[in-house]
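Transposase
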Amino acid sequence: MSRATCLAETTNGLYKAEVIHRQSWKNREAVELATLTGLDWFNNYRLLEPIDNIPPAEAEATYYRQLDESALVA
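Tokens:
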């Protein structure tokens, strides 16, 4: 099994444990909204210890800002 497959299975298992199996769902739209809400938090607000406890979106913005600044200097 490849690392990508293993990571995908781990992520899927975490999603099911944290979102799907924690409650009963009224309909498909409720599951979709919960999924999107969780993804928004995961991508934009969670704090990552390896990058000084800042959210991924902030780290990405800083990275691209630094690229732009270094291109201007060069």
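The longest helix spans residues 3-20.
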